[in-house]
Amino acid sequence: MASRERRSDAVANRDRIVEAARVELSESNGAAADLKLHRVAKAVGVGQGTLYRHFPTREHLLAEVYRYELTQLVDAVAPLLAEHPPLRALTRWMERLVEYARVKRGVMAAIEASAWRDLYSDQHHRLDEALETVLQSGKAAGEVRDDVDAADVILLLGALSRIPEAEWEVRAHTVVKVIVDGLRPRPERS
């Protein structure tokens, strides 16, 4: 029984560490280099040994924060589609994507290139599938053009990586609005 309790405590500690790191990253505008592991441990109320037992390096913790953010983004699709018309759901989902992109950019800067490729290659299909789900729903409702797919939108979203941090708040949301406007069906011309 004590072993089971320890395991559930360990899982809870791990989850709390990831959440605290996510909050720290959010407060530092995704600047992973500014993530202080001792502050994360203190915020959670665990010792540094506990933090390092779960995440031996900053990169391990950042990779888990990235996975968490991606999971939250992917899991948001169904509830958004249930609550909103497809184009509105897509817009709200892409607004969440802006925060994900900010964290991703900070994580990318802090994780070695080879480790980032491995992490991203294991996960990127989930993002593509989530986006495709929202796009297909929009197409079925006549709210999204038939001639675009997730790959097209992902290419356009690449513009987020070029936005200077100082301009992020204004420009990232504008980029999303422009992309969503471009996804609307065009009136047929005679």
Automatic annotation (TrEMBL):
Family matches, as InterPro entries: Homeodomain-like_sf (IPR009057), HTH-type_TetR-like_transc_reg (IPR050109), HTH_TetR (IPR001647), Tet_transcr_reg_TetR-rel_C_sf (IPR036271), TetR_SbtR-like_C (IPR049445)
Top-rank taxon, per record: Bacteria
Feature: DNA-binding region: 36-55
Pfam families registered for this protein in UniProt: TetR_C_43 (PF21597), TetR_N (PF00440)
Residue ranges of every copy of the HTH tetR-type domain listed in the record: 11-73
Keywords, alphabetical: DNA-binding, Transcription, Transcription regulation
Protein name per its UniProtKB record: TetR/AcrR family transcriptional regulator
